[in-house]
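#help-structures
NK: newbie question, is this the right format to request a structure? protein is tRNA-t(6)A37 methylthiotransferase
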Amino acid sequence: MKVYLESFGCSASQASAEIMKASIERLGHELLSPGTADQAEIYICNSCTVKYTTEQKILYKLRRMGERGVQVIVSGCMPEVQLEDILHANPEAHILGVNAISRLGELLSSLEQRKKRGLSGGTRLELRTSEPLGFLNVPRERSNPNIHICQISQGCNFACSYCIVKYARGKLHSFPPDEIVEDIRAAVADGCREIWLTSQDDSQYGMDTGVKLPELLRMISEIPGDFKVRIGMMNPFSVLPILDDLVDAFDSDKIFKLLHLPIQSASHSVLKRMNRLHKMDTVDTIIKKFRARFEDLSLFTDIIVGFCDETDEDFRETVEWIQKYRPEKVNISRYSPRPHTKAFSFRNLDSRISVKRSHDLHKICEQIKLESKQAMVGWKGRTFVSKYTETGDVLTRTDSYRPVVIRGSNLKPGQYVDVEIVAAKPGYFLGKLVDN
């Protein structure tokens, strides 16, 4: 059968999509290339429900595909929390639970048998599992052959008032550390040179089992081979209990000095309504400890603007925090009420206020990023060759994950090279090789 898979959302969702693509091809189906959905007999939507705009885009696609007579399978987060919305858009949509990606083959085989019997319709199929299965040590069709996305856990033990993902993915389920190590070891043997550790909150890893993230990082750092590890998002309230051990674990040549610490707001009153279990002095402590150890640390954060009852003063506190700590990257989202969450019943701000605050914060962050990038021109140092770009150039990264593109070279992923940054572009730096 001709199968088109479209994936939305986070890197964990991307990892699931890579596993499902490999399953499709292993069963002998034709995996259609991007932009050819009109040729599909089966449309698989690996869904995301974090934002209303994404949800509406997905529901439109499910409806449109159903009207064209295409068999639709919905995986990812939406079937766990918005099944009624899915079936309203497409009453015949088949469901693959968020924990059940390993069962995609069963679903496709059932649909293929129907096709062979000349049955275009039939009972809607729904496959789920209570525990996450098939996320590690399985074949993948990677988006980039040099990057391996390793999901280290599923779910979350906290309950931010705006977050629907907790309801979609359930309580924290940390995957066994020996299976994670074997998964990464195999990826390195397969040629991957950049490893992304992903989950809903990496610093929660092991809170349910005893082997915490710092110990896992030490185990990963002992894997032989030339590779680097990018650690994903970590919430301040789950970093604090492991802070000293985590900083020590980061002090490995194999770990990028990148701290992705989402604060969402710098206002304590907003954080309280969000049910975020950290204070800003905790955030300050974490950043200062990391920067004291790693002078060239890159800081990423996430901000939600326009949360329920956010005042001008609340927003100003967030702006001042951004201006003080000057993160290299800020993911800005306008608050989007999600069903099933506590905040869904809160009073929302006028959308025009959220739009303006988002615009203003984007301008401030872009100015900070521009100034930081210009300050890096002339920098000389060692970078790690990560992957080839779509244009055939080589993307290298500094120890703090800053991207430096080298044009017209024959470098191989996994090498270390000395470079000089000669120009700053909007999304990366241009560099040239320098002699030792």
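mod (FA): yep, format's fine, and the tokens are attached above. The domain at 2-127 is CATH 3.40.50.12160 (Rossmann fold).
NK: thank you!
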